[in-house]
Amino acid sequence: MSTATQVSSWRAIEALRAGVPNRDAVQALGMGTAQPNIEARFRQMLGDVQKGFSTEEAADGMLVAGDFGAGKSHLLEYLQHVALKNNFVCSKVVISKETPLYNTAKVYNAAIQSAKVPDRAGTLLNVLAEKLDFESPGYERFYRWAFGSKSTLNTRLAASVFVFERGNGGRYPEVSDRILQFWGGNRVPESELKSWLRELGEVATYKFDKVSVRDLTLERYEFMSRLMVAAGYAGWVILVDEVELIGRYSILQRAKSYAEMARLLGLLEGHTVPGLASVFAITSAYQSEVMDEKQDEEKIASRLPATGKPEDLNLAKQAGMGMWKIRQVPHDSMVLHESNDLQDVYNKTRSVYSAAYHWEPPTDFEINHTWRIRQHIKRWINSWDLVRLFPEYTPDIQVTPLSPSYSEDLDLEESAEEDNSGWEG
To answer: Any residues with CB less than 8 A from the CB of 404 and at least 6 apart, and which?
Structure first.
């Protein structure tokens, strides 16, 4: 057995032990055949993304649900593998305290930072800088979109493209790097951008009006997806995990999160992005334990419009689309079903463990029909660890069910300054 195989097996076991699957674990255990309808829908979505550029239409995204511990993260890891194999840039975003779904800018930043590109090492921004060919047909289409007579692209982004191209993308490394970081979500002070334009004799061409951080971030999504296609990729796929955490937000933050989910799923008219598609994963119990228990549909539909503010009325409508999509999951057959062949999962896990440690685990296959696959796998691995390290010891592994809490968490609150406000420029 090669060292590479052993290292890959060890990485797979460590990921399965932690309950956070990686590429090695997915390749070892597989996933696609256990979820044929979800995989088929995902591959159709990838095809729709590629077709959408000719019609300027966006592909509909996917929302999948599964019980706690049913393998949602494992599924997303497998879908990322499929996306990369089909020449898509793929980002995996995990909703957390640091990345709240209602904060558009933080979700975008997380998507850029986590992005993987097919058959390439390095960060997304650096790879794009290397692959952009200003003479290619793909870049020519991007240029026509950015600078055409009907373009509504923010002048900051348009000006940054002009400076980046005229600097040949790398002739002025410091300037090019600053522009790449701006595309990735950082601010570029207007004084710097204007000075670069002045050097190129174009300072009078671009006028910078005030724009909110959120509005500029929304433009960056389309800008970046089209830039990826210009660099030769098929499009951009964003996978969002742990979506059920939004159940712990305040009612207003949940409304913003539902709206953000609806936008990324391509459900909002006027907010769709050709070249971009997303998949969200949420717990099956979310509908009953959050939306029903907290009466989200009724409260959001009544409280927000009552303020009389047009933006609150619009938010209520957008949030309604997100909640509707959650309700549609069972009807769309997007419910995650665990593999019934636990013997096969056991055999594969045992084989990977043997390869990782050059040690043959005992054949002690045992299942409990009330446990999830994750619980079975962690029990098997922990038992083998103990027997391998202490041969005379007889393990007695206890499994305790763990359910997520949807009670509101004040620690998840953010100040108004952090919550999609602020201005560029």
So the answer is: 68, 244, 247, 283, 285
